[in-house]
Amino acid sequence: MHHSMNDPTAALAGMLPFDSIGLYEQPKPRFIFKMPRVVPDQKAKFESDELFRRLSRESEVRYTGYRDRPQEERQVRFQNGCREGHTEIAFAATGTNLQLVFSTPNASGYAQERECDFDKEHGKVHIRAAFIMNGVCVRWRGWLDLERLDGVGCLEYCEERAAQEDALLREQIDRYNQRLREFEDKQRVYRGQQDRNDQDLELRMSGGLHGHSHHGHHGASPVSARCHGPPRHGLPLQGRKKTDVNHGHHN
User: Fold this and answer.
1) What share of the chain is helix, strand, coil (3-state, %, to 5)?
2) What pLDDT sits at residue 30?
3) Could you tell me how far CA 150 lies from the centroid of its own chain?
4) CA dist., res. 26 & res. 4, Å (int)
5) Looking at residue 210, what is its pLDDT?
6) Which pLDDT does position 20 carry in this prediction?
7) pLDDT tens for residues 149-204?
8) How many of the other CB atoms lie within 10 Å of CB of 12?
9) Model's pTM, two decimal places?
10) Residue 222 has what pLDDT?
């Protein structure tokens, strides 16, 4: 008891979902399952979840970066962040904050897949940014005014990325099931070997006890013979005394 309290590995071993590790047994590898990035039915959750339903309607959004700085400095920082491929916004109605990451404009001033477009409308920047929110692949789509730093935007269900993540999820589940089957097979082999070892031990112990009992049973004869002595031939002591008396009477 004192040993287990002083040994820090004893507490860790008690937390593992495995049988106790033998003295010379190799430690079993931990079985780790990585948490999936998306839910099994993303579209159904996007259409039924109340938060997604509210955010999927176009509503007012605001730039939330550097709130403690002057407006002119915030305008410059907002445009610089967009050109670097990131910005921070919030839905005014729900207070939901989002950190958007998107492709940056290339050297010619255009953005890859038009995810950040300063040229579509004068005085505004149009942004499209895909990400995973609450296990669902979504895309934020909207625009912000470069001076007021507010605008309009909404969330859309991202079909393309959802299909990619679904494929990754199925692959991950298949790998997990394969590892689980391999683990169970190893456990069955291990338990079978343990059962055979236990049976062999019981047979050896049973044979040893039987041999010891058999040997003790036959070993009682010499002890009995030594205690009782060899059989005596001739007359008993009382008869011998009577014979001696008779001989003396005749003399």
Assistant:
1) 50, 20, 30
2) 57
3) 44
4) 20
5) 61
6) 38
7) 999 999 999 999 999 998 988 888 888 888 888 888 888 888 888 888 888 888 88
8) 9
9) 0.58
10) 47
Determine the length of the chain.
Answer: 251
Partner residues linked to 143 by β-bridges: 126, 152
User: Comparing C-alpha atoms, which of 60, 234, 81, 211 is closest to residue 150?
Assistant: 60
d(CA 49, CA 214) in angstroms, rounded, equals 79
Tell me how far apart the alpha carbons of residues 65 and 81 are, in angstroms, rounded to a whole number: 10
d(CA 115, CA 102): 6
Q: Which helix (H) or strand (E) holds 86?
A: strand 86-91
Rounded-to-10 torsion of CA 155, 156, 157, 158: -110
Distances 32 to 17, 167, 176, 201 between C-alpha atoms, Å: 11, 20, 9, 35
Sole residue written with tokens 């999927």:
56
Cα 76 from Cα 85, distance rounded (Å): 14
First to last CA, the chain: 90
User: Beta partners for 234?
Assistant: none
User: Contact 46/52 with Cβ under 8 angstroms?
Assistant: yes
**Tell me, what DSSP letter sits at residue 236?**
-
Joined together, the tokens standing for residue 101 give 């990451």
Measured CA to CA, the distance from residue 40 to residue 215 in angstroms comes to: 71
DSSP character at residue 21: P
Estimate to the nearest angstrom the gap between the alpha carbon of 149 and the chain centroid: 45
For 76, list phi and psi in degrees, rounded to 5: -65, -45
Instruction: Output the six-digit token pair for 149.
Output: 């730093």
What count of other Cβ atoms lies within 10 Å of the Cβ of residue 165?
20
Residues 50-109: tens digit of each pLDDT: 999 999 999 999 999 999 999 999 999 999 999 999 999 999 999 999 999 998 766 444
Tokens of 142: 């909207």
